[in-house]
Structures are given as C-alpha cells and as structure tokens.
C-alpha cells in the first residue's frame, strides 16, 4: 500500500499510529513490546471507530477525495478478470480520464467503464484529474452501444469532480455529449449497475450514471456541484466549502434518503483507502448480487423500471 496520508481530523489517530510503528521497530526477542503495542492498537481502533462514525459532510468529502482511495483501475484488477481496455470515440481521440473495456465478472462477460484519477503529478495530468472531455463520454457511449449489440451488462464507476470545463471541451460539445449519454443510457435494454466510488460531481458524473441499480460507497459524495464551487457561487468565497457541504446534503446517507441511490456499500473501518482488498471484496459481492437480480428481468421491464426510477426522483412543492 502507498504511504498513508492523514486528513486534518485524523491527527490524533496519526500520532497514535506513529507511536505503534515506533514501538514495533523497537520490539525484539529480548525486549518484547507486544503487550504495549496491542493496547495501543485497541486504542487506535476505538479512536478510528469514533472518528469515522461521526464525520461531518465536509470531512466525508475529504475522505471521498483521499489520494489513496481505490480508483477504477484498482477495482478492475481486484474484482474483474481478463480486462481488455478499448480506446477512442472514433471521432476525435482517446480520453484518458475514462477507462473502459471488456472484462469478466465471476466468469460472465461485462462492459466496464469509469473515471480514472491519478496519484502522482504525472498521472494526474495524464488523467486530467479525472475530468473527462467530450470524447471521453462519447467513448463510453460507443462501448455502451457495443454492449447493447452483444447483450452484455454494463458496470460503471463514478469518481470525478466534474466534466472538464475547458474551452476545447466546450467547442467539441461537452454539454451535448453528456445530454446524449443521459438519453441513450435510459434506453439501453441491458442491465446497468452504477457505483459512486468517490466524488460524484455534477453532469460529469451523471453522464455514466443512469443505471438500473445505483450503488454508493459509504464515504463517497454525490452532488450537483463541489462544496467549494457552491460556496464560490453563493457567497463568493470558495473557502466556505464546509458550510456548503452541509447545505448540499451530499453523503451516501443523505442521497439514500432522497431515493437517488439504491444501496450503500459499507467501507472498511477508516475508509476504502485503508484496505483496497477488503473494499473490493465487499463491492464484488454487491455487484454480483445486483447483477443476478437484474438478469432475471425481461428487457422491456428493465427499461420501464429504469424510466420510473429516475422519474420519481423529482420533488415539487407548490
């Protein structure tokens, strides 16, 4: 696992875990510190439980953005087999912010795609910080249509601050690409499972998030805009992100209560970034279970239920 980065609210835990590491390095056959280390580990676990059971919405957003959080390529390695990446939109080029291709889930062929962020500077730039251009969404749509032709289920992983807002992206039809994906995904006759794994930001997330089942990881966030962006618009002050996060109600629990998602997938204690294997195992079970259920539905019923699912999300007050 990569170097552990601690968030501001984890400082007491960081100090305790640092002490555990120091004692572990000192512990030898002649000076056994196992008992003391065991006590500290129990304290650390209780502290971790206390911290992560009472996160604010702003703190949850920080967990969702954690640099060590599993990305799409991590889940592809841990959950699927025989992944073959497919590239390009056959119109402009290949977008590295979205990875997509064929894979097997428990021996069953599926089409998988998702946003991909980077961990170091070079990879972040290569992946455009997980913000797709229009060609990324058109690549995703091309492969969804391929899945339709071959009757393959579609699984998408959502983790983006939003679609790239650059001039080039707008010139190439960013809004049209997102809108087309929304329309076409609503019509597909194959099962679609969506997983919000980190940040679900605005239309950039929605463009691959129209599904029969929408799952959301416990510490992921899903909103029409980032807390900082919301604060900049409402108060002309992007530093009021914490205040905006509370107003946005962007946590998995909030979104579940609003009936926008179908299921919350529990994360390992301390967040998915602490244990990729455990997170992948839990998500694997959820994907297999939901796919099995969706496989039982006729194509017409699948589309009708998807239509009704998204229609009932709106609330009108007169």
Architecture overview:
- The chain is an alpha/beta fold and 318 residues long.
- It folds into two domains: 8-54; 60-311, Alpha-Beta Complex (2-enoyl-CoA Hydratase, Chain A, domain 1), CATH 3.90.226.10.
- The chain is 48% helix and 15% strand.
- It has helices at 11-26, 34-52, 57-64, 72-79, 121-126, 134-149, 167-171, 174-187, 202-206, 227-235, 241-248, 252-257, 276-295, 299-311, and strands at residues 81-85, 98-105, 108-115, 154-160, 192-201, 213-217, 221-223, 263-265.
- Strands 1, 2, 3, 4, 5, 6, 7 and 8 form an eight-stranded mixed β-sheet that branches.
- Helix 1 runs antiparallel to helix 2, helix 3 (57-64) crosses helix 11 (241-248) and helix 10 crosses helix 11.
- The protein is globular.
Q: What's the gyration radius in Å? A: 21 Å
Task: Assign the structural class, choosing from mainly alpha, mainly beta, alpha/beta, alpha+beta, or little secondary structure.
Answer: alpha/beta
CATH superfamily of the largest domain: 2-enoyl-CoA Hydratase, Chain A, domain 1
Continuous helix count: 14
Q: What is the architecture of the largest domain at the second tier of CATH?
A: Alpha-Beta Complex
Task: Provide the low-confidence segments as ranges.
Answer: none
Given the C-alpha coordinates, what overall shape results?
globular
Mean pLDDT: 92
Q: Per CATH, what is the topology of the largest domain?
A: 2-enoyl-CoA Hydratase, Chain A, domain 1
Give the total of domains.
2
Helix content: 40-55%
What's the helix-strand series? HHHHEEEHHEHHEHEEHHHEHH
CATH class categorisation of the largest domain: Alpha Beta
Could you tell me how far the N terminus lies from the C terminus, measured between alpha carbons in angstroms? 53 Å
**How many DSSP-defined strands?**
8
Main beta sheet: 8 strands, mixed
Q: How big a fraction of the residues is strand?
A: 15-25%
């Amino acid at each position: 696992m990569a170097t552990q980065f601690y968030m501001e609210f984890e400082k007491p835990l960081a100090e305790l875990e640092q002490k555990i590491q120091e004692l572990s390095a000192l512990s030898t056959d002649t000076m056994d510190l196992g008992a003391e280390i065991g006590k500290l580990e129990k304290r650390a676990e209780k502290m971790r439980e206390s911290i992560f059971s009472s996160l604010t919405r702003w703190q949850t957003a920080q967990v969702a953005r954690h640099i060590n959080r599993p990305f799409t390529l991590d889940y592809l390695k841990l959950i699927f087999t025989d992944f073959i990446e497919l590239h390009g939109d056959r119109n402009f080029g290949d977008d590295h912010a979205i990875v997509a291709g064929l894979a097997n889930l428990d021996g069953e062929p599926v089409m998988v795609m998702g946003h991909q962020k980077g961990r170091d500077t070079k990879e972040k730039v290569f992946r455009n910080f997980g913000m797709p251009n229009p060609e990324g969404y058109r690549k995703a749509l091309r492969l969804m249509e391929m899945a339709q032709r071959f009757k393959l289920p579609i699984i998408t992983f959502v983790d983006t601050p939003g679609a790239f807002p650059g001039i080039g992206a707008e010139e190439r039809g960013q809004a049209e690409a997102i809108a087309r994906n929304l329309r076409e995904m609503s019509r597909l006759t194959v099962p679609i499972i969506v997983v919000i794994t980190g940040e679900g930001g605005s239309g950039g997330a929605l463009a691959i998030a129209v599904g029969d089942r929408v799952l959301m990881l416990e510490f992921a966030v899903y909103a029409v805009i980032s807390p900082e962006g919301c604060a900049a618009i409402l108060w002309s002050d992007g530093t009021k992100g914490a205040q905006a996060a509370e107003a946005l109600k962007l946590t998995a629990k909030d979104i579940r209560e609003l009936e926008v998602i179908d299921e919350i997938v529990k994360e390992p204690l301390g967040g998915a970034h602490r244990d990729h294997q455990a997170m992948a195992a839990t998500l694997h079970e959820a994907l297999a279970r939901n796919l099995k259920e969706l496989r039982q539905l006729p194509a017409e019923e699948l589309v009708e239920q998807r239509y009704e699912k998204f229609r009932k999300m709106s609330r009108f007050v007169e």
